[in-house]
Structure formats: C-alpha cells, structure tokens
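Case study B.
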Amino acid sequence: MKWIGAGMLLVVVGLAMFAPLLARHEPTAQPYRHLAWSAPSRRHPLGVDAVGRDVLTRLAYGARTTLGIALGATALAVVGGTMLGAAAATWRGWFETVVVYGTDFLLAFPTMLLGLVVLTVLTPSPASVAVAVAVASLPAVIRQVRAAYRSEQAKAYVTAARACGAGRWRVAVVEILPNCGPVLGGLTTLTLGSAVLEAAGLAFLGLAGQPDVPEWGAMLREERSLHVLQTAPWLVVAPGVAIAWTVLAFHLISDGLTTRE
Amino acid sequence: MPAMARYLIRRTVALVAALFVSSVATFLLVRMVPGDPARLRVKNPTPTNLAAINHRLGLDRPVPVQYVLFLKNALGAGSLGESIVTGREVKEDLARTWPATVKLALAAMAIATVSGVGLGLFGARHAGTWKDTVASAISLVGISVPVFWLGMLAILVFCLWLGWLPVSDHLLLPAAVLATIPAAFLARVTRTTVGAALRKDFIRTARAKGCHEPTVLYRHAGRVACGPVVNMAGVQFGYLLGGAVLTETVFAWPGIGRYLASAVLARDYPAVQGALLVLVTLVIAVNFVADVGHHVLDPRLRQP
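Model:
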C-alpha cells in the first residue's frame, strides 16, 4: 500500500521539480488572453484559464507552492510537537499537566478554525498559510509523541539505561527517540496529507495572498464562479485532482507505515 | 450513581474553564492584531479623533478591565461590537447566520452518521474480503478529497448538467458534501472497533449458542463499538463547523462559516471575534454532550 502511495507522490514531486521543463510558459504571465477559457488542446493540455494563463504551467508551479507550504508547515509542527511532547513526557509535573490540558483543549477545535485564527493576525501569504497550518497541526503531534514516549518509558531498555546511569536527556534523545521512528514516520506523512488539504482550503478562501500566486487551492478559487463552471468546466478538474491525488498519496504511505500486515 | 455525579461535576467545571479560556483567547486575538483599531474606523485620523474613538471603544483602559467590559457587554447586553465593514451590530449578523449553519451541520451529521456507520459495519461484516477492501478504499478517498472541490463538482453535475437541484437555497447538496469527511472518519472508526470486537471471546460464545449473524453484529459487537463511535461523532461534529467555512463559501450558504471567512479576508476584527466566539462555544458544547454520552454508553469508563 505504501508503495502505491510513494509512486503517486513521485509523480507530484516530479511535476514540481521539472515544472520549468514541462511548462514552456511563465506561471504568472498572461500571454494567451485571446485563448481564454479554451478547452484542452495539444499546445495547452489542460486548457487556458480566464485571464489567459496556461493551466498545466500553473499546475506544475502550483505543485511547488502547495508542497512547499505543506513541507514547511509539517516540519514546524513535527519538530516543535516532538520537542514539546517529549519534554512533557520526560519532565512530567506541572509542565506535563499544562501541555496535556492545552493540547486536549485545542484538539476539540477544527483545524480549519485554528488556521483562520492564525491568519487573522498574520498578513495573507503562502508563508502565513504555512505557519497557520503548522499551528493547527501541532496539538495532534504533541499528543501522539507524548503517548509514544509514555509507552516507551515503561519498557525494559529504558529501565536498563537508567540503571546504567543515563540521565533524562540521554534517555529522551538517545534511547527513546530512535524507537519512536515508526510513529514519527506515520505521523509526518499523515500531517503532510492534512497540511496539503488545509493549505489548499485556506488558499481557496483567498488567504494565500496575491491571486497570481500559483497554488492549487487558489486556482480553484478563481474558477469557483458559476460562469466558469458553465463555460469551462475542465478548468475545475485539474487542480482538484492534483490536491486529492497528493493527499491520497500521503494517506496511503501513512497507513502503510502505521499498520503492519 | 455517585461516580456518574462526580464525573458530571468534573466535566462541568472543565466546560466552564474551556469557555473562559476561549473567551480570553478570542478577546486577546483581536488585541494582538497589528495596527490601530481606531485607525481602521476613521477617514481622517487626527490625534483628537483617534483618542475619542479609543475612548468610545474603551481602548484607553487597562487590558484586564477591557476584558471585563467585553464580557459584560457580551453576556449582559449581548453586544459584540460593530462590524467595521458593514457598520452593523455583529450580534445581528450572527443571529441571522448561525441557524443556517446549525441546520447545515445537523443535516450533514445525520448523513455522515448513517453512511459512515453503515459503511464501517459493511466492512466489518465482510472483513478480509474484496468488499472490505472496497469499503476502506472509499473511506480513504473520502478523507483525501478537498470538500470545496467536491462542492464545485457537485454543483457542476447535479445543478448545471442534470438540473436536478437548484444551485442555492437547497440543503441536500451542501449537507452531503460537508458530510464526506466525517462519514469517512466514522466509517474507519466503526470498522476498527467493530472489527476488534468481533474477534473477542464473547462473540464466539454468542455464535456458539446459535445467535444468528445480524444479532451478533448489531447487539453484541455493535454495543461495544457504540462508545467510541459516539465520541468520534462528537469530534466530527466540531470539525463539521470548521468544514462549514469552506462548504458555505462554495454553495453561497448564508451561514456563520462564510461570514467568518469573509470577515477574516476583510480584516473585520469585531466580526471575526464574534463569529469565532459563537463557533467555539458550539464546538465546546457539542464535545461536552458527546463526552457525557460516551460515558453513559460505556460502563467501563465509570469504573474508578
């Protein structure tokens, strides 16, 4: 299962990496105004959008933006969440209580709402969306990492390490962290998947900044009017398929990493 | 049942604490926003003008005092300030929009519960066969598809091509679209818990004494799965209110989600604050009900 996911992901990464080769047009230029809303053709395999931009070009460069946001957000959430979760499990006491209550409280709220809260304070841009998605994903990471640490702490190798005189730092970083590898792997891919979905959602609401930023959610925002749906429905297909494809790839990898047949 | 009473008291204290913390958080959020709120409201900012507005809004007082005033206004007079964009009372906008959102969320939750639990039970009943694989594939795709895109496709197919439903003012399409993600999550939880319950000894006993399969599935295994499913339903109902922001935008549904999305985009802070406050209160209330429901349904949780 995870290999199917990895294969699907490879396609998206290839699209992002080889964007300049695949697309012979500038992502923000509007050179085909006379071809606006034209159907897919040999020259424009996915058609031309309302202001005369080649959709394949936008899609390929959009892969860079969307994956970039998701990677940045996930890196922030996983690194920060691992540090907080591990610290809570290691130091216990009031610090753990605060972290546990805080994450439980935040987990009750939809990630979309947390993302919107963050974007109320920041100015709209892809980087702000990444920060918003990171904050929204953080509570889930903290909870999972803390739970993984707590269950590892009960195991014999931790007792053995303590008996040999290992301090808290050593136990947390050298002994337990490597054993949380599979958990962190599943968690990271799961977070990447939800990050793509949420980033696209926030961009769809217009919070990723300038409308000419090539981003999959923002592309759909431009095509959401009934007029476009009626005259050029093919414009709606590509960005949505790209989002669903990428999220599905991450979910397949995550499921494959966490469940063992 | 003193254990249940103790639980209810503890849970109610947590409820009040959660409401307090979220009211402080939404209050502080708007104060954290860069820029001067008085400047946003005035065309020609002179110092006297700004000072007058700051005084009218109470912004010249210490922050804790401002919070108490905010709470007094919100609870006493039910006032949440004026929208910067429309100039109307935020309260009036919210009173107009929140019933639409609750209606949409309830309809979506009903669709999600029936289809999600149904799909999960179907998968569990045919565990290990191709039917199970298809059911899990459907739920996996369900959590991967962006709702706003699904909404656009639904409008395209059902409203524009087939002409079965009107584009706006119809509950079915937005509710069905909003239901996809919760339905998929519920299917996964149902499949896992029922699947695990079916491998227990008491199921073998039930089968051995000759119960027919539907009774085993619904009465024996289903009873065990009830708690986690209700709990998940509560969490998902909260998430529905988040998904509503996107779904309402796509379908031009006159609810609080669309109101919040446009308020964030327009930097209309009093409106953002009010909408967040209402949504957050709804989420907290729903989670409270789901937690207590889980507790009532699962006697194992009541053991000390």
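The first helix of chain B runs from residue 2 to 32. The remaining cases will be described in the next quarterly update.
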